[in-house]
Design brief:
The chain is α+β, with helices and mostly antiparallel strands. The chain contains 9 helices and 9 strands. InterPro entries: THUMP_dom, THUMPD1-like.
Amino acid sequence: MSKRGNQNGGNKKKKQKIYHCAKENSTKSHHNKFNVTPGMAGVLVMCSRGKESRAVKEALDVLSRYGDELYPPEANDAEDSDDEELDLEASIAKEVAALKKPTAKKRYSNITTATDCVAFIRISPPVNPSKLVHHMLTELKETQKYMTRYISRFLPVEKSCNAHIADIEVAAKALFEPHFTQKDSEGNLISRKFAVACRVRNCTKIDRMSIINALAATVGPGHKVDLQEPELTIIAEVCQTVCMLSVVDDFNELKKYNVESILGSNKKAESAATAATTKEAEVEADEEVKVNETKEQS
């Protein structure tokens, strides 16, 4: 009897225990998807494949350093200096009030993208991503000093929305207003030359030309497309289901915001100027020789 029972029991499979690791699983799923969502602002950081984590560390350091120059952080400790004179009860009340205050958001934080060669640093107000990146790259062009080792490009993101034409048009209209509605002293619209730089990654439901046409139409009449010498460049970066937008200055002059191209640009300009001067000198010398030969013959 016991033997038969053992045989029956032996045929039954042992039920495996299930262990729930919600925290670990949620963390993995969080890091395995594109976590930039509509409404976020920040900077897209381009780098070599496999160097994303190092690029993030560099970006956080560089952006915070230059950001603090443009937007000095408010001193949290700028309170009354006579704390020592407060009585015990008032001091405790002050500490309790401080604990109840909401924690301030970090100005710069990494948002995982799960995309090769692409990182995203979220930036909180009052920092303007376009002004920050322009300031940073302008200084890089002037100083020609390496600021990063792993980053190849910084692209600011002022607004982000769902990658649908209707949503893009709404976000673009709000973004474009301060740039394309300016008027002169007589009330006439100031015409601006502009270009659109658009790239689509890992998204098949929307094509690049549809975005470009929608953005150009949103700019409105009175302005001119100029791909060679634009005053303003509209950047549109689509990744999966999110479209990221910004309006920037000096996009062509700053080598399409490519760090590697900016480095050495001054040397190239100097070399070109030297070559042009040398050529002019050679032409003048040849002309002088010809004049002298003509005089001798006469």
